[in-house]
Amino acid sequence: MRPVTTIPVPVTTYLTPDGQLVSSVPVGASYADGSPLEWGDPLVPGAVVLDEQVAPRASWSGVVRAGQVLTIVDVGGNQSGDCLLYNAHHTDERYSAPDTLAWQDNAYIRTGTVLRSNLGRALMTVVGNEIDRQDTIGGACSRESNTLRYGHHVMYHHGCRENFLTEGAKHGLGMRDIVSNINWFMNVPVEEDGALGIVDGMSAPGKRVALRAEIDTLVLISNCPQMNNPCNDFNPTPLRMIVSEPDVDYEADA
């Protein structure tokens, strides 16, 4: 594991002589390439066994062992992290959005949500969440959908589907293994008429979500490269992935 360099971020707020409010609280992206922010600690106390940063527009994968907790940090703020989950030993068992939502009878993912597989089994549980809700119905962008929505001038932009295929290939996964995904930190409200929107995010720099693995779980992340709608504030920024061994058994507050 590479050593982690932190950047102190002191918070100061003051008025200038001409009455302008100046604050060091970050607005938008606030990071240095290769250096995670100091506030990116695990949500669940414990020994850190993995701490890696996912570059903007890039992909990441890793196996989170049963009982370990994965904390995902939105380093710059309003950065969507598209996510797929698989049984690490039998990848035909994978995350199922329909099973997850049907079991909890709710359209959103929140603290206490059990992320279930296509066999109805628990893969991971959300044991910490610093924003109001997480999305699992907005899907993943792709070259094809970008071209259809935004025009042929963006057809060269890769999307989350391409990231999933690239990262999944490292684990023997292909097109047939790409299913409905989770979108961490993405704001997809359900309107009164049932329509879905992709609107400005409700996350902020340093916001986190924590997932406890119930079985050994292969996690695929696409640090969303989308630049044509507000899901990433039109400015993709890094994510930070922290895997920890909890100090004690941690129960989610449902």
The domain tally reads: 1
How many beta-strand elements? 12
Number of helices: 3
Structural class by helix and strand composition: mainly beta
> Proportion of β residues?
25-35%
From the alpha carbons, calculate the radius of gyration and give it in angstroms: 18 Å
Q: What is the element string, with H for helices and E for strands?
A: EEEEEEHEEHHEEEE
Q: Give the uncertain stretches in residue-range form.
A: 1-15, 21-32
How far apart, in Å, are the first and last alpha carbons? 34 Å
Give me the side-by-side strand order of the main sheet. Answer: 3-12-5-10-8-7
Q: Tell me, briefly, the overall form.
A: globular
Output mean pLDDT.
80
* Sheet with most strands: 6 strands, antiparallel
State the helicity in percent bands.
under 10%
